[in-house]
């Protein structure tokens, strides 16, 4: 296997990405294998977008290999509150990304490899791609019991999911990507993919939880690098190209014009949270106040990630009515976001009567509300 | 009479379209004159039912997840219409036609069927786009597009609408630089090309309009002649600017700030400014910085400013007070919770360091580090952001000298610190030396604070900072 990243290689890649005919290495016709040098989930997702939007896949199909530092990636039409423990993500500094393909939520870290198969829309064929992966795995370790299910999962030992799939189809091109668990942190995986948020009702695509296992657990001699190489080798064989992986830098604006804008867009709140399909929350706040515990019912509708409707069923006069309506009016239209809400409620407090008891109740209520986000 | 009108109408009817805006013969008998007029005047473009094309893999139904258009929107060919999902695949459906969306056949989360109509698009009949049979992707045109991609001057990519625009203006598409996807030529590109070529294309009459009417008519024809003899002067033409105003509602945190600032301006502010010589403090900080670093804390100037303020507040507690709504009572706050204004992506936030009166400079520095890292991560808690009694705003880190800070209710005073500049000053011996000068601008609530109090507080604060050793005397 040859890994090169010299200037000559850069020029060659530059040509490939633009003019499908002008390639002076005939061995690159029919297919291209590229690997990202970055572990930033947003940059890597942006590369997928770029190839999907700009590359001509008629003459040449592409295999893109990438790995990310810890991140949770939700599907295009999913609800992050439903899918993962956002509080834990924020605490542990794990990134949250929304990809453009459909499907469910996955956890990425450096022990997981991602494979993206780019083809024209006509040649979109997920089963073939997954069979390729299985073939590669078996070639590497013949004793591995791995097979593809009709849900496009790859199972180990007939029970453990080691790969999940998703796809994106555009007008002329399509891509199918999948994960592969080599040596990911299963403990973090299971804790971040468990949502603590109650009372959510939504039509967002739900994830189907599955028991997972790392290939490393089955065979400790396996590493991510070996798996990447084996898959690249099989791809090269099937596409009759050189077994050669070209490194690509997702921050290279000259090679991939417009990529930095794509990266930025994927990180915006509007994309990650704002694209959540409309959902509602109906739950209870358990507030310990003085010597009693209050059960306060809360109903909210959230659209485009913003609070459309908000109802808090407080005991009468617990908060002066003027103050309650001030809170509700301010929350309406505001982002369903703990930081935004914290800033909002603390700022509002400045214009409330200066009463310690009142402030105490306000803070208690607001902190509980923020916990919902 | 009616029949006569029908004939004249039919002669101007849409010859090219296959779909016909039908006049029922029976309807004609009863049809009003106005009705005939209306039907012939309206561009009764053909309504084409755009069917959901094959997704592949034998999929027959999908769920509609998001609409990018609504009824009444104009679309161009290749614009995205909606996003559908099928079994982990998300598909972007793009328009095959230029036209106006007339009907969406499905709402969000409904199941749509392959081969059945997805949207109705009204196509302008004069464009003569014949509706195609439901075709499996990819249409043959795209193959040609790609083959001719690099060959300039030959086949260029542009939608029929754009080609028409170019044709009407006698523009060769090969001369236009396309800025769309795959170097596609967009309407904007034609407009930009036109703007550059105005000398050749736009009629000369606008020149005459620019000449003021006061001039005699004889000079009018002379002007163009003069221009011809003189060195050509670039004439400024109206540049095609396609930017649009964007209106957004004020929501959430911004809305809360509006309330706060409106309340703040009800406070009668007075300002007091001064200049502080920080030469000695700069030196002191340089000495102490490495010590703090060893303890894992970044030491800036703020901890000194904050501690000095607290020492000052001990002498002038009215500056750490709060006036109630009816201005009946003044509450002297026991804790010095000194707020530090921070600029974040979302806007201005003011977390505060609690109980500065019992904190050492190092404690303050450490707490500031904590607040700063939480602030930049967007994870400050409500307790960090409430309970402030006095505020300092270090706007100097961004720039500026003097400012006019706005008091943050329910507080009664605020200080804005400008940037530290190296300036020449005279010392006691009359010699010029290099001084590190920073400006401070205080604002205070004139209802309970008078100028003298503010001035004395400021002088005390200044003296602590100008000779930091004096702080040692009063540290508790």
UniProtKB/TrEMBL annotation, chain A:
InterPro entries recorded: aa-tRNA-synth_II/BPL/LPL, BPL_LPL_catalytic, LipoylTrfase_LipoateP_Ligase
Coiled coil: none
Catalytic activity: (R)-lipoyl-5'-AMP + L-lysyl-[lipoyl-carrier protein] = N(6)-[(R)-lipoyl]-L-lysyl-[lipoyl-carrier protein] + AMP + 2 H(+); N(6)-[(R)-lipoyl]-L-lysyl-[glycine-cleavage complex H protein] + L-lysyl-[lipoyl-carrier protein] = L-lysyl-[glycine-cleavage complex H protein] + N(6)-[(R)-lipoyl]-L-lysyl-[lipoyl-carrier protein]
GO CC term (a single one): mitochondrion
Places the protein is found: Mitochondrion
Superkingdom to which the source organism belongs: Eukaryota
MF (Gene Ontology): lipoyltransferase activity
Annotated BPL/LPL catalytic domain residues: 57-243
Pathway: Protein modification; protein lipoylation via exogenous pathway; protein N(6)-(lipoyl)lysine from lipoate: step 2/2
Listed EC numbers: 2.3.1.200
Keywords, sorted A to Z: Acyltransferase, Mitochondrion, Transferase, Transit peptide
Pfam family, one: LplA-B_cat
Biological processes annotated in GO: protein lipoylation
Function, as annotated: Lipoyl amidotransferase that catalyzes the transfer of lipoyl moieties from lipoyl-protein H of the glycine cleavage system (lipoyl-GCSH) to E2 subunits of the pyruvate dehydrogenase complex (PDCE2). Unable to catalyze the transfer of octanoyl from octanoyl-GCSH to PDCE2. In vitro, it is also able to catalyze the transfer of the lipoyl group from lipoyl-AMP to the specific lysine residue of lipoyl domains of lipoate-dependent enzymes but this reaction may not be physiologically relevant.
Family: Belongs to the LplA family.
Record PANTHER family: LIPOATE-PROTEIN LIGASE, LIPOYLTRANSFERASE 1, MITOCHONDRIAL
The protein's name in its UniProt record: Lipoyl amidotransferase LIPT1, mitochondrial
Name of the coding gene: Lipt1
TrEMBL record, chain B:
Family annotation (Gene3D superfamilies): 2.40.50.100, Chloramphenicol acetyltransferase-like domain, E3-binding domain
Catalytic activities: N(6)-[(R)-dihydrolipoyl]-L-lysyl-[protein] + 2-methylpropanoyl-CoA = N(6)-[(R)-S(8)-2-methylpropanoyldihydrolipoyl]-L-lysyl-[protein] + CoA
Cofactors named for this entry: (R)-lipoate
Record-given protein name: Dihydrolipoamide acetyltransferase component of pyruvate dehydrogenase complex
InterPro entries per record: 2-oxoA_DH_lipoyl-BS (IPR003016), 2-oxoacid_DH_actylTfrase (IPR001078), 2-oxoacid_DH_E2_comp (IPR050743), Biotin_lipoyl (IPR000089), CAT-like_dom_sf (IPR023213), E3-bd_dom_sf (IPR036625), PSBD (IPR004167), Single_hybrid_motif (IPR011053)
Function description: The branched-chain alpha-keto dehydrogenase complex catalyzes the overall conversion of alpha-keto acids to acyl-CoA and CO(2). It contains multiple copies of three enzymatic components: branched-chain alpha-keto acid decarboxylase (E1), lipoamide acyltransferase (E2) and lipoamide dehydrogenase (E3). Within this complex, the catalytic function of this enzyme is to accept, and to transfer to coenzyme A, acyl groups that are generated by the branched-chain alpha-keto acid decarboxylase component.
Keywords, comma-separated and alphabetical: Acetylation, Acyltransferase, Lipoyl, Mitochondrion, Phosphoprotein, Transferase, Transit peptide
Gene symbol of the encoding locus: Dbt
Enzyme category, top tier: transferase
Localization of this protein: Mitochondrion matrix
Protein's organism: Menura novaehollandiae
Family listed: Belongs to the 2-oxoacid dehydrogenase family.
